């Protein structure tokens, strides 16, 4: 299952698919029908048992050994007494003792691999899983972010991408309003909670997240905080539990917009100075000015825009983007043929987070220039058959120079400016001066 970051892939599998399959496996089977043995999701919980530098394959093998303990025939069990024999052999041993049954395992590939393991280990991990799946004894459901998958016969040397046959890929799109309503109401009802006023409160939450790129994670965070507000309200006022989430609980948070601002501020305050600067650059790249001079979300921006000449600056921007995605403040996405893209998660960042608003005010005079420059760069990259100079004859060049090198910095940045000018403006060759006489 593939989809953008924080779109609900793991929730759909672990809260929807696996419970339904478990219920199906409990009913009587017909002749020739296989029975499913649904394993708990791996990694379990919110704290995967694979720390940086540890072997993900060994962790998976220990997981299977624990959940399939006692399932192997005696002779095979003795052979498997060694540590870390691999998931393929472990699943095959179980299948020998359970003819007509199939193992199903859901793996959160994002949580397990991409932030914790080295590329070489990921290659071994995918190879082991592919071998186990081909034996028809271990069926896998992978949740993978859409910029981390590959469809085809081989991964073309990309160690970050699993090989996924196109027929087996299920893209997960963002939820529409009716689906989001079910996300709010059904889990609350299962836990015995209700909303007051029911219609107005739920509609207000939906209005705040509908059509926003990171609707689901921000809605989830808001509801979680509302429950905490409810608990605090009950304890503080010593009221009997009535299991009602109220507009008062939502108001105390400032609604979804207040949650977005608080998430951004908390993340920003926890960064060192250099990463704060990188966060400023990233967020300013994700907004634009419309024809009415209003600041709005940009369409998804290629992550290549955050590749700089300095590798350290590129790595810092990538780390900041990953951290913002974990908070639901940006969304990272890609499709089978397109590049990896980044988009602001919610427009409330523009309206309610004071730090970003300050950056926007400080850079307001440059918005028109930046928009024109992006257009020029895009056209130049799209049609650069002749190695022409970028903007070398544009009348806005003095404005670009003044923006990049204000008068107060010209002396100290003279060498930098000269290096830049060589890349933009053709320099005239100076004629040799003739000596008198």
List keywords for this structure.
three-stranded antiparallel β-sheet; 11 strands; 437 residues; four-stranded parallel β-sheet; globular; alpha/beta; 10% strand; 18 helices
Tell me what you see in this structure.
The chain has helices at residues 9-26, 56-67, 74-79, 87-97, 109-114, 119-134, 177-190, 198-209, 215-237, 247-253, 255-269, 273-285, 311-326, 348-352, 354-362, 367-382, 397-404, 414-424; strands at 2-3, 35-38, 101-108, 138-145, 194-196, 244-246, 287-289, 295-297, 301-302, 330-333, 341-344. It has 437 residues and is an alpha/beta fold. Helix 4 packs parallel to helix 6, helix 9 crosses helix 10 (247-253) and helix 9 (215-237) packs across helix 11. The protein is globular. It starts with a strand and ends in a 13-residue tail after the last helix.
Nutshell version of this structure?
By secondary structure, the chain is of the alpha/beta class. Helices cover about 50% and strands about 10% of the residues. The strands form four sheets. Strands 1-4-3-2 form a four-stranded parallel beta sheet, with helices on both faces. Strands 9-11-10 form a three-stranded antiparallel beta sheet, covered by helices on one side. Strands 5-6 form a two-stranded parallel ribbon.
């Amino acid at each position: 299952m593939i989809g953008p970051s924080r779109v609900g892939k793991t929730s759909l599998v672990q809260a929807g698919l696996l419970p339904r399959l478990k219920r199906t496996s409990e009913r009587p089977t017909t002749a020739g029908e296989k029975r499913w043995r649904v394993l708990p999701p791996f990694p379990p919980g919110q704290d995967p048992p694979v720390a940086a530098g540890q072997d993900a394959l060994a962790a998976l093998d220990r997981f299977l050994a624990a959940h399939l303990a006692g399932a192997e025939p005696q002779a095979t069990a003795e052979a498997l007494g060694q540590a870390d024999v691999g998931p393929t052999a472990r699943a095959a041993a179980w299948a020998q003792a359970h003819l007509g049954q199939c193992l199903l395992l859901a793996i959160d590939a994002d949580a397990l691999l991409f932030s914790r393991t080295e590329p070489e280990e990921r290659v071994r991990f995918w190879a082991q899983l592919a071998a186990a799946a081909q034996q028809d004894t271990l069926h896998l459901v992978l949740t993978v972010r859409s910029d981390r998958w590959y469809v085809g016969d081989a991964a073309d040397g990309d160690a970050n991408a699993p090989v996924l046959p196109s027929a087996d890929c299920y893209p997960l799109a963002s939820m529409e309003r009716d689906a989001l309503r079910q996300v709010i109401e059904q889990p609350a009802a299962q836990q015995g909670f209700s909303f007051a006023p029911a219609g107005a409160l739920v509609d207000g939450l939906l209005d705040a997240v509908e059509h926003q790129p990171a609707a689901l994670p921000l809605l989830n965070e808001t509801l979680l905080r509302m429950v905490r507000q409810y608990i605090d309200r009950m304890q503080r006022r010593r009221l009997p539990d009535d299991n009602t989430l109220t507009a008062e609980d939502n108001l105390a948070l400032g609604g979804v917009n207040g949650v977005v601002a608080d998430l951004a501020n908390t993340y920003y305050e926890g960064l060192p100075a250099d990463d704060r600067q990188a966060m400023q650059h990233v967020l300013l790249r994700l907004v634009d000015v419309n024809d009415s001079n209003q600041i709005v979300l940009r369409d998804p921006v290629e992550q290549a825009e955050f590749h700089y000449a300095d590798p350290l600056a590129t790595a810092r921007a990538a780390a900041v983007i990953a951290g913002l995605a974990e908070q639901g403040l940006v969304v990272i996405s890609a499709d089978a043929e397109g590049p990896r893209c980044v988009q602001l998660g919610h427009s409330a960042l523009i309206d309610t987070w004071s730090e970003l608003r300050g950056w926007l005010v400080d850079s307001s005079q440059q918005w028109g220039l930046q928009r024109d420059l992006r257009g020029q760069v895009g056209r130049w990259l799209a049609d650069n058959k002749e190695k022409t100079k970028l903007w070398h004859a544009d009348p806005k060049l003095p404005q670009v120079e003044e923006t990049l090198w204000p008068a107060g910095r010209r002396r100290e940045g003279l060498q930098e400016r000269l290096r830049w000018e060589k890349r933009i403006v053709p320099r005239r060759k100076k004629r040799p001066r003739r000596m008198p006489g």
